[in-house]
Amino acid sequence: MYQNYTIGQTEFVLNYNYDLPQNHVARLISAFVDSIPQEVLLEESVAATGRPASHPAIMLKILLFTYSRQTYSGRKIEMMLDESLPMRWLAHDYTYSYHTINNFRSSQHASNLIKRAFVYFTMALTDHGLIQNDAVFIDGTKVEADANKYSFTWRRAVEKYHAKLREKTSKIYEELVEKRVVQEMAPELVTSAEGMKTMEQELGEQITKLDEEIEQEPKIIKGGSVRKRRRRFLKKLRHQLSNDLIPRAQKYEHAEDIFQGRNSYSKTDHDATFMCMKEDPMMNRELKPGYNLQIATHKQFVLDYGLFSNPTDTRTLVPFLKQFHALGFFKHIVADAGYGSEYNYTTILDQFEKQPIIPYTTYQKEQKRKFKNDPTNSQNWQYNAEDDYYIDHLGVRFSFYRYSEQIDKYGFKRDFKIYRADKHQPSAQLDKLTKTPGGRQRYMKVNPTWNYYKAKVKATLSSDEGKAIYRRRKFDVEPVFGHMKRDFGIRRTHLRGQRAVENDIGLALMTLNITKLGQLINRWRANFINNRKSGLQFLIKAKIIVRILMLEGQKLIVNSQPLSFSSLNITHKPKLSKVSLVANPDSAEDSLVIE
User: Which of the residues 91, 135, 221, 258 has the least number of beta carbons within 10 Å of its own beta carbon?
Assistant: First the structure.
């Protein structure tokens, strides 16, 4: 027996209301977006006339759902609005073009909204008891940009050729001033594109003046016309300025404005910087345009993120912590050895007043027996604190000589103590060992501040609490990148530009959070139902489950009393011996019994 199949006959179409399962991720996305206040969702100034603007809540819902389905193309998102039932449920049967979708997720309003969404998600986790105040875990990864990997521009090359152009322009300027063609200008203006345009205009005025004078000359002049030779010379220089020097100067100045302290950028995506990626199939450390993504996690939930053009993690930690909204929730900041530096330790301890659990680069090396038994290592030399001198493995004494300071290119100052080998040693043989092969006096530099931080970090990582917290880093922050790159397929960005890429990554990370929370809810629900007879012994789990079930619209009765949202604000811890979910014989709803 087959289904009824008719062709060319009149059909009567009925529209049915559609709904989603209670545990569908679209419901969780809708509940989360609706929990954000309207004054945060809506822009402050919106046009009062014309076609009504798309509501940001609906746009955010459909983007989060499409990202959960690994769909990132604007045209495919537009198609899903017509073909996908959850998308139609989230969008309330509204349809949007891919232009509207792409414009929204690249806008400044979307950037502010996504950042605020992470704040409210963190607050929700805190309210449900899913955040402890012990530690936050920070790590970074490289994400390849949506740009041509051969469209590179290097700062060193631009500076090299720009310097040659300035030198060539200066010679032309000196020659024109000597011949009284152009007026004198400021030295910094001569080699700029604006100064070259000024010279070109003055050359044009001189050529026009010569044209008028040449018209008054006789046609035949013995020995040739001096004005015509001068005009040919000036036309040649004006052609060189207009067709070669000025365009090159504008190109170099534009490139220097784009660099903003970076060493490279891509012509396809000016905000992308060339850096080494995790994936290197040719094993030749090929540089590709990309971004440095930094995230802060707790229990594999991403609490905040940041996108940087700096390829090294050392200089991104402090800027990321300054923008981290939930820094006050935690006592310890945990990261790998790539973040260990004197500047980071100083800022975390003094400015943020947190405890860093961050090993420095040589921490693992210093724990080995070979390093501790190496006599040539200055850290193993004998030190006399009373007289402040060192004795190396050869017996040469190094006495304190003077203080010194160094300021790096970022403006951070480091203080050093310099110890120089004494000229007069106990023996003549040791006197010879005080000299370098070049005949200079040997010396050594010691950074007391850096040694203090290293000792502090060693003590923290050697303690039981420090070991337990640092051990959690491997299964807290690292799996997030694995889920993002493997499960969501985000190894390369889908948009171009710093703001658009940051929004794209933020949507993906928020979708990852909601998906993980949904899986956690389903697991808790299954455990709760499977343990009806035995009950749950912890108030926090009962509190979480009650809130989640209420969030999804399921009605419960607690101790024969209807449960409302106001009853969820438990300010004290009652004596709890048993929590169970039992069937209510008077109705089809279950009852949550707390004894």
Answer: 221
